[in-house]
Amino acid sequence: MKDFRSGVLNSRVIVSVVTFVVVLTALGSCANYYQKHFDFNQEFERGDLKQALETLKKNDREENGRGRFIYYVNNGLLLSVLGQYEASNNFLEKAFLFGEDYHVNYFNEAAAYFLNPNFTVYRGEDHEHLMLLYFKAINFLKMNKPEDALIECRRLNIRLNQLGDKYKSTEKLQRDAFIHNLMGIIYQSTKDYNNAFIAYRNALDVYENEYARMFSMQVPTQLKKDILNTAVWTGFYEEFEDYKLKFNMADYMPPKPDAELIFFWHNGLGPVKEEWSVNFVIDHNSGNVVVFNNQALGFSFPYEVKEDKDRTDLRKLEVFRVAFPRYTERALYYQSAAVEVGGQSFPVEIAEDINKVAFQSLKQRMLEEFSKGLVRAALKKAAEHSMRKENEGLGAVMGLVNAMTEKADTRNWQTLPHSIHYARIPLVAGANDVTFTVADASGKVVPYKFTYQAKKDQTLFHTFSSLETSGTLYRYY
C-alpha cells in the first residue's frame, strides 16, 4: 500500500511540476520571431539604426546561438546603411561562410522532431543567402572595388547553380535576373563591354521567362538600353539592330555622358514569417499507410507506419493540429520614385521583388515542411497515447507538452528590403545636383537632394533605403 501511495504521489508531483514548466515555457514561446525582437525591429523601422545596432550588440550571445545567421546579416545590413562598409562585409562574410560550412546537428534535429524546429540552428532561406552577397557587392562598389564586387556576383552564380540541383520543380528559382543585371552594370563600369553585354543578355532571358512567369515582372527599360549600348560598344552591330527591332526602339542611339550614377532604391521591408496552424484528419484505411487529410486546403499526405504497435496507437487519433511557417507581406508605403538632374527626370524601375522571391523560396520547400510537421505530430501523438496506457496522468502531461511545443519556425532575415529599384543617371564632370523623389499611393511626393562630384568616365553608386511600410512613416538613407 505504501508503494502504491508513493507511486500515485510521485505521479501527481511529476504532473504538477512538468505542467508548471510547460506553462512557463509556453508563455515565453507564443510570440513569433519578430515579436521576440520587438525593440530591435521598432528601432530599425523608425530609422534609429545606431540604437538598433546597440541593441544587437547587447544580444551578442546570439552570435554563437541558434540564430547566428540572422545576427550576422542584421549587423551586415545595418553597418552597410550606416556607411561602415568594411565592417559590414566582415559580418556578411561570416554569414556566407556559415552557409558554406553548415553541418547538421543530429541531436537538435531529433529534438525538432519531438518538439519543434526552433531547437535547430537557423540555416537561412535560399534567397537570404543570395541577398547577403548582393549587399557585399554593393559595399565593394561603394569602396571603389569593382573586381571584388564581381567576385561576389560569381559566388551568387554558384549559389544559384546549387539551388538548381536542390529542387526538381519546374517552378524552382534557379536563376536570378537582378544578379545578372548587376554583373552587367559592374562590368560596364570597368569598360568590359563584352562581358557586360553577355550578363545583360542573361538577365533579359530570366526576366522574360522565370520572372515573368513566377513574379509577373517586366523587363526594365534601362536593361534594354544597356543591352543596346554594350552591343554597339562591343561592335555587335547585327545584334544591335536585332534588339532595336525586338524592343521597338528603332531610333535609339547610345548616349555619351561624361560620367554616370547608378542609383539603387531599397523600398520598404521584406515579409515576416508567422505561424500557420492546419488541422488534419487521419484516414486509417490504407494498410500500412495512414493518410493525413485537409479537404478544405486540398492537402493529402501519406505516412508509412511499419510497426503494428504504432498503427494501433495512431488508430486512436482522429484530428490534430500541425504548425507551419508562412510569410506575411509588409505592404509598401511608397509606390514610385524618380531621379531628376539637369532638367531631366529618370524613373526608378523595379529590378528585384524580394518579397515575391521570399514567398517563392518558401513555397519551393513547403512539401518538406509539411512532411516534417506531420512526422513530428505523428511521433508526438503516438508517444502520448502509448504513455496514457502506462499512466493516465503522465499521458495527460505529454498531451499538454505536445500542444504547447507545437510551434512553427518563424525566424527570417527581417531587415531586408521589400524590393530593389534602380536607375542609370547621366552626370557631367564636376558637381551634379540631383533630386530623388518618392511618391505614396495618394500621389504625395517627398524630395531628397544630393550633390555628386564626378570625374570623367567615372561610374558612381548610391543606395537609398525607404524603411516605411504601410502605416509607418520612417526612412533612412
TrEMBL record:
The chain crosses the membrane at residues 12-34. TPR repeats lie at residues 177-210. Keywords: Membrane, TPR repeat, Transmembrane, Transmembrane helix. The keyword Transmembrane applies. The keyword Transmembrane applies. InterPro entries: TPR-like_helical_dom_sf, TPR_rpt. It comes from the Bacteria. This is Tetratricopeptide repeat protein.
